[in-house]
Design brief:
The protein has helices at residues 2-14, 23-29, 39-49, 62-68, 73-91, 97-131, 184-187, 235-245, 252-281, 286-300; strands spanning 136-141, 144-149, 158-162, 170-182, 193-195, 211-212, 217-229. The chain has 301 residues and is of the alpha+beta class. The protein folds into two domains: 2-41 and 136-234, Calcium-transporting ATPase, cytoplasmic transduction domain A (Distorted Sandwich), CATH 2.70.150; 62-129 and 250-300, no CATH class. Strands 1, 2, 3, 4, 5, 6 and 7 form a seven-stranded antiparallel beta sheet that branches. Strand 1 (136-141) and strand 2 form a beta hairpin. Helix 5 packs antiparallel against helix 10 and helix 6 runs antiparallel to helix 8. The longest helix has 35 residues, at 97-131. It is rod-shaped.
Length: 301
């Protein structure tokens, strides 16, 4: 129930178009003020909305991901081909089948290690994203200014930011003086963008001049910002979730590639069997026909 309520409130607040509200109206809508939240209310909201963290999604352990690179469909075909080659070498030594078996094994290992390295880099990218969020932030609570752990910031808090600070959450500026922020972590743009507290009709968070977003850095100036959303409800949180989900979700393109791969594997196997039978029909030695068939299967896969 609490999880559903939290999602409902997050959607409601994001649907407010807070960028279009004046500073005081934004504070009123979020049940806050320019002096921030009382401590008791901040504690209640922390229980309700959870910590301001980008959580890691439950994932497959690294050892299982590593093992999976050697037991997928194509890998199994290659294992079978390598097994046939070694079996042929035992049955009739000196035909070069052992070398072919080891060559196939090398292909399996290189392909598996490369695929695993790609997945590992994607996971490391998520950790790098989380490291971009600040560990601490200065907030106004109950009329006093204090430094707190950034993970306990809640919607309605007022955050004080200045040059060199990283923005801890999705915020609407209520005061700004010469403020410019670096959005490169979200957009890749190298030039900093000016930000101010004037209401803005722009609904896209990255273009709204009165919004500062989690994971961005203050290049110059200072300001006070009203926290609108925290954790995974921020733009930064969504980017992190999408990055983590990249290896879990199958896109239409991946589905088509998998279908085509299955077709190619079936075709390769069929060609290998056909050429083996042709070799036998024209009188080639059994093991020579088998070696030729295995070579065709491996070359196509």
């Amino acid at each position: 129930m609490a999880g559903r309520h939290r999602r409902r409130m997050a959607l409601f607040w994001r649907g407010m178009h807070i960028a279009a509200l004046g500073p005081d109206e934004a504070c009123e809508r979020l049940g806050s003020s320019r002096d921030g939240l009382p401590e008791a209310e901040a504690a209640r909201r922390l229980r309700e909305f959870g910590p301001n963290r980008v959580e890691a999604l439950p994932g497959v352990p690294l050892w299982r991901r590593f093992a999976a690179q050697f037991v997928h469909f194509f890998a199994l075909i290659l294992w079978f081909a390598a097994g046939l080659a070694w079996f042929a070498e035992r049955a009739q030594p000196g035909q070069g089948m052992a070398e072919m078996g080891f060559a196939i094994l090398a292909v399996i290992l290189v392909n598996g290690l490369f695929s695993f390295w790609q997945e590992y880099r994607a996971e490391a990218a998520v950790e790098a994203l989380r490291a971009l969020l600040p560990q601490q932030a200065t907030v106004a609570r109950g009329g006093a200014t204090r430094l707190i752990d950034a993970s306990i910031i809640v919607p309605g808090d007022v955050v004080l930011i200045e040059e060199g600070d990283r923005v801890p959450a999705y915020c609407r500026l209520i005061e700004a003086l010469g403020l410019r922020v670096d959005l490169s972590t979200l957009t890749g743009e190298s030039l900093p963008k000016a930000r101010d507290a004037q209401p803005c009709g722009e609904m896209a968070p990255l273009r709204a001049r009165d919004l500062v977003l989690a994971g961005t850095t203050v290049i110059s100036g200072r300001g006070r910002a009203l926290v609108h959303a925290t954790g995974r409800h921020t733009e930064f949180g969504r980017i992190s979730e999408l990055t983590q989900a990249t290896g879990e979700r199958i896109s239409p393109l991946q589905r088509e590639v998998a279908r085509l791969s299955g077709f190619i594997a079936a075709l390769a196997t069929g060609l290998g069997v056909a050429f083996f039978l042709i070799g036998q029909a024209i009188g080639l030695p059994f093991w020579e026909s088998l070696m030729f068939a295995v070579g065709i299967i491996v070359a196509n896969v």
